Amino acid sequence: MERDSGSRIEYEVFLSFRGSDSRQTFTDCLYEGMKGAGIRVFRDNDELRVGQKIKEELPRAIKNSRIYMPILSTNYASSKWCLTELATMVEMASKSNGTKEILPIYLDVNSDDVKLKTPLYRDVFVQHETNSGADQVKAWRDALLGVEEIKRLNLKNYRGYGELIKVIIQEVLVKLNAKYRLNMFSFLENVREISRRSDSLVHLQKQLLSSIIDLRFSSDTFIHDVDQGIDMIKKALCDKKMLIVLDDVDEKDQLEKLVGKSYWFEDGSRVIITTRNTSIVTDQMETLELDPPPNRPGGSSLSGVSTDKASWEETLKKLQKVPPKKVQETLMISYEGLEPTQRKVFLDIACFFIKENKKYPIFMWSDREYYPHDAIRVLLRSLIKIGDENKFSMHDQVRDLGRHIVYEENCRFPGKRSRMAKKLRVLDLRSCNCMRSTPDLSNFASLEILILAWRSKLATIDRSIINLQNLSTLNMEGCKSLQELSEEVGSLKSLTELIMPKHSLLCKLPETIGNWQSLSSLSIKWNERISRLPHSIGVLAKNQAFVYRRLQRDQGASAITRGIRIAD
After folding, report:
1. Fewer CB within 10 A of the end CB, N or C, for the chain?
2. How much is the pLDDT for 1?
3. Residue 203: is its pLDDT beyond 60?
4. Residues 434-491: tens digit of each pLDDT
5. d(CA 266, CA 532)
6. For the ranges 141-145, 318-322, 508-512, which has the lowest average pLDDT?
7. DSSP assignment of 309-372, as one string?
């Protein structure tokens, strides 16, 4: 808890939040950002909620704060402390004659949740009605509904934490009539990743300058090389109080070319960096404030650590022993904070499902009772992202961590590693655009769904498919270059669904298709080149499998297909 030494405590912002949801992620980043902007912020510590001290401190802190900022998250309403804070804030603001106000932040909730129209908060209030007095619950409900009537900032309307925090700080400074404190704010994201590009430092310099000065022309007109960029940044910074956040810095050169020396800045400026590489912190950076936010893979590895002091000190000691270049060992701390099933989902994504749609692996994880929706929710906080078309993505350092963990399971015998021997049930090869033949599938004996759809160059299916005796679905839709189905394909006894390509080069079906005794349907309506059916098709007829297309001028077809539904 932040306190003055005097008898009166004064804060400009009071943060109300559910610690388990956001203390070490969004709230920590927001708190440090506002501190860097010179804003006096109250943020309570969980350990103070034991005993009577909090009953004295909280009302006094709320009373002596100017702006109340409830951060509404998934579990906010399940906390009686949070609801008590909220009710007190609403009461104080209503009696302040406009001297106090509330700025709600919707982190991962929407208006219907806050209005108790969805189970998220509504179900929690049912429990509160059982465990708390009716008057108290009514006060909590009225406070929550009152907040919904106030102008708010919602994370879903912004690109991420960085952009939302920037807007919040600007909003607070306006409300405090304190813009003079910081002239500008700049946030450079993914510095390490961008630095891989050609002319990367020049690009970052342009981005920084664009947030400092109003360029009338394209920044290309002004910056032609790094040295010119340095000169422009020095001139732009010299008379401004700045808050600059550099995210995921990994080289000293990046710092020297972007924020240089302390004399570049006016007194009162702040530079916050996040980094994996502690070796860049030297005596020459004594005026730079190293404060990595913990919710990003490149930020603090203290994410997920208990809030008690001993745990933090223990983790800090652990990090200090990690050599700067051994990033994997540092990231392992985030991995160790996951539950067992969450670890399995994380390793699966790292090894198999980057740039793949989440739909199919979720089926597999649900079957194995990994509780994928909960696991994905946790992993989305820092380890994975879901982008366009619902495809998984992952920072390359995090991906390498996952694959390194699997590698360490058995360095000598790859076949004994969990992600080689695991029971993969869905394999989607639609992203393999140049594939002319399927790969060796011998190691995927538990596969149940194989998707080859729209691989227009696929001509043959590898004979190793005979090992997939649990395969129930084979999707070959759009494989127009397919020339044959091998006898091994006909040996898939568990096949229930076969989706054939239309207008392919396929001329015949394998003689072994009588083994498809579980098949529910077989359509060759659009396979004009197939003129005869194998004799074993009669076995399918007894099992009510259907073939759709009349085979013209085939005298033997009627006898073979007797009992099979045929469509013109």
Report:
1. C
2. 37
3. yes
4. 778 887 787 678 888 998 888 888 888 988 899 899 999 999 988 889 888 888 888 8
5. 85
6. 318-322
7. HHHHHHHHHHHHTS-TT-HHHHHHHHHHTS-HHHHHHHHHIIIIIBTSBSHHHHHHHHHTT--H
Residue 394 per-residue DSSP state: -
Please identify every residue annotated as catalytic. Answer: 85
Q: Sign (positive/negative) of CA torsion 8, 13, 16, 17?
A: negative
- Distance from first CA to last CA of the chain, Å, rounded? 79
How do beta strands 105-106 and 153-154 pair?
A: parallel
Question: What is the predicted pLDDT for the residue at 259?
Answer: 86
Going by the DSSP 8-state scheme, the letter that residue 186 receives in this structure is: E
What is residue 539's three-state secondary structure? helix
Q: What is the largest CA-CA distance in the chain?
A: 104
The sign of the CA dihedral 187, 191, 193, 199 is: positive
Lookup result for tokens 């919904």? 148
Distance CA 541, CA 536 (A): 9
Compute CA distances 256 → 196, 212, 225, 264, whole Å: 17, 18, 14, 11
pLDDT at position 291 over 60: no
Statement: the pTM of the whole predicted model exceeds 0.90: no
What tens digit of pLDDT does each residue of 23-66 get? 889 999 999 888 877 788 988 764 344 444 555 677 788 888 99
Residue corresponding to tokens 């072994």: 512
